[in-house]
Design a protein that fits this description.
Elements: H1 12-24, H2 29-44, H3 47-65, H4 71-81
């Protein structure tokens, strides 16, 4: 899945305090925000659309698992090894 970057504005003093206290808990802002975004996605995007997106991701993974060289090149490489 291709990731997108999201940029938001937040009060710098509050962000500093948030980083400080999350560090004490060994927590990550990025991880927390990722979880919040996932919940927003699940809440607002219809289940049918989510299923469609997931099926496309599965198709993309299947395509990337295929050999990157065309069959003819593989055949020639096998013949060269003999």
């Amino acid at each position: 899945m291709k990731k997108a970057t999201l940029q938001i504005s937040f009060d710098s003093e509050k962000l500093g305090a948030l980083k400080q206290y999350m560090a004490k808990k060994e927590a990550s802002i990025e991880t927390e925000l990722d979880e919040v975004m996932q919940k927003l996605y699940e809440k607002n995007v219809p289940a049918a659309v989510r299923e469609y997106i997931e099926s496309r991701e599965a198709d993309d993974q299947t395509k990337s698992a295929r050999p990157s060289r065309p069959a003819e090149e593989q055949k020639n490489a096998a013949e060269d090894e003999q």
